[in-house]
Structures are given as structure tokens and as C-alpha cells.
Amino acid sequence: MDVEIVSIGGEVLSGMTLNSNALFLSRALTDRGFSVRRHTVVADNIPEIRAALEEALGRSSWVIATGGLGPTIDDVTREAASSCFKEKPAELKNGLGTAPGAFGSRLILLPGVPREMEAMFLTEALPLLERSAKGKRLLTRHATLCLLRELEVDPFLRTLKTPDVEIGIYPSYGSLQVTFKSERPVDPEIEKLKKQFPTFFVGEGTVAEALHREMISRNKTLCLAESCTGGAIAARLVSIPDASLYFAGSIVSYSNQWKERFLKVRHDTISRHGAVSCETVQEMVEGLFEETDCDYAIAVSGTFGPKGGSAQKPVGTVFIAVAKRKEPIDIGRLSAPKDRAAAIEFTVQTALGALWRRLIHNTPTFI
Asked: pLDDT of 333-362, one tens digit each?
């Protein structure tokens, strides 16, 4: 069953607010077998809202509108949508705010405040929508692969494609996600994907989530030494509850002085090879193991610009070291994207992917 999302608010059109509501709804609906066909964004204007809703209802089975239900001067959605309801809609309770939602005549109205919208959709609207859905819905499964590029996976996915299975591939820095949609279970396809890329296959969820589960289940611990990422790897890990069960901490040794003082990196190593070098990240890991009792360690150091870099080590150069205590250190030199934020994300994902392969398969990534 197809669904269209209409986001209402000048703050979204102007770029002042990221449209996280559409992102949340699309993921939630897709995971439950609904097909999201279109996103529309309109300003807080009654004629424009009404026209957008009428057009959406004319082409989609259901329409979900977010925003404009509160008490302020620009909250006009309820008035604009009144003509779209053929009968009095059911009220959706708002347990986190004051503005109730509405459900009826293939139209759902939800508040624009993300936490209110998410709670109302999951507890109030979704059960009603699922009961109203007619016909079969597609089953959706996701599989994450680490450290592989789209072109390395796409040829194999083409061999799995059949008329009754829809396959999508969604790359990001350092990982990619493969989505399978079908009216039947797709476990055979997922098993074939796992068999084809065994050491890169993560499965459901993100690499960080998978590491979280496995580190805890194996009773292993992890410590970090971050330079160029400035604590971003640690932030990714602690965003998941109970990270303290395996994650000991991160030393953000951004300066050379901190690398020497807290990680025991030799001054001579930095002088001869530079802070961004194979030798430095190796000693950063060795320092971590010397100062902690952790089972695994990651160290990163790079130059992300926009200034700096050299002919030998241009902007984007990053060294990553991943190690298991008392085993050889796996060190790699990579070229990150030139954009600073993208370079940090690339480094975070690559480091976590390399740790995954070392933890699960005892396989080095860079050696």
C-alpha cells in the first residue's frame, strides 16, 4: 500500500529545520511493508496546504501530513485539511504535547515537533493504519556491509534479483546497506549475500550497533586514541545505551604533546615520521595497551584540511591502526574525502568496520 508524506512548515522550506519527520516516517513505513511514493513540502498557507493534500489523496492510498497543528499563528493545517475529511476524523492523542492529531478518510494529521510526532505515529496512528491496510504488504529486510564500495557489490546483487524480489543498494562512507523487499521471506538471498562477502557482512543495523552487541556478548573491552576525528568514534559508540559494558574510553590526543604525554609516542617518532604516519598510530595503540587493560584498541591520525597537507601526505591522508592485545597491529593508510565532515565520517566508519572484521573473523583489513 502506497503512502505519501506532506510536510508543512516554512521553516522546512527555508532550510532552518531539517525534515527529520519525513525521514523517520519513511523508514518506519518502509520497514513495515508500506511503499512511500512521494515527499511534498508546503508553506503554512491554507490554500497551498489544501491543494497539496487534495493532490496527494488523488494519487496515493494514504497521506500523512506533519506540522501546523499547534496553537500559534502559523498553525493552520487543521483548518486547511477540514474539507479533505469526508466524515469526522478520529482524534489521535498527544501524550507529549498539546496538539492532538487526526485520522480518517485516508488522511493522517500529525504534529510537527519530532518527538511528539514519532510517539503519536507509533502508538496512535500506526495501529490504525495497519488495520486499515488492504492487500499484501512488502516484507523489508536490511543487510549492512562494511568497507565495500557499491561497484564491488552490485554485480553480485544482480545475480540475486528475481521478479518477486526488489533489491536496493545504499552506499555511505565506509559501509553500505542492501535492502530486500518482497511478499515472501528473503532469507535465502541474505544468506547468499553473507556467503559471498563473509568477512564484510554485518547484518541488521549499523556497524556500531553490531559491534556493541558482539563486544558485550564476548565480554571484550575497547579503548580509542583519536586525533583527527576529535572523539567522533567515541561519540558514535556511546550514542548506544550500555556502551559502558565494553567501551573504556577515548584519549583525544589532538596535539603532538598529548600524543607524547598520554600515549607514550616518542618525540623522535613524530619528528622523523610526522604525527600523521604509520609509525605514530602504531605507537598510539601500543600506548593504549600499556596504559589500559583493554582487549582491543583503535588509533587514528590524519590531516583533514582545508589547510595543511603536503605532496607526500595531501589533505585527506589518514592512518588507522586496529589491534587486538598481544597480536600484530593492523595499520592502513587511506585517502579520505576532501570535505572535513565527510573525512571524519569516513574515518569513523572505516575504523569501526576494520574492528568488526578483526573481532568477528580475526581478519586484518590493511595488512
From this structure: 999 999 999 999 999 999 999 999 999 999
Q: Is 97 helix (H, G, I), strand (E, B) or coil?
A: coil
Q: Which three cell numbers stand for residue 93?
A: 492523542
Q: Do 270 and 260 meet the contact criterion of CB atoms below 8 Å apart?
A: yes
- Beta strands 101-104; 35-42: pairing state: unpaired
Please state at what angle helix 187-196 crosses helix 150-160, rounded to 10 degrees: 140
Q: How far is CA 294 from the centre of its chain?
A: 27
Identify whether the C-beta of residue 49 lies closer than 8 Å to the C-beta of residue 68: yes
Domains of the chain (ranges, CATH numbers): 2-132 (3.40.980.10), 139-203 (3.30.70.2860), 207-361 (3.90.950.20)
CA-CA-CA-CA torsion sign (31, 32, 37, 41): negative
Question: Which tens digits make up the pLDDT trace of 50-61?
Answer: 999 999 999 999
Q: Tell me the C-alpha distance between 360 and 167, whole Å.
A: 26
134: Cβ contacts below 8 Å, ≥ 6 apart: 1
Burial class of 131 by CB neighbour count within 10 A (0 to 12, 13 to 18, 19+): exposed
Angstrom distance (rounded) from CA 324 to CA 289 = 9
Residue whose C-alpha is closest to residue 212's, from 190, 187, 234, 179: 234
Q: Which residue has the cell 582491543?
A: 296
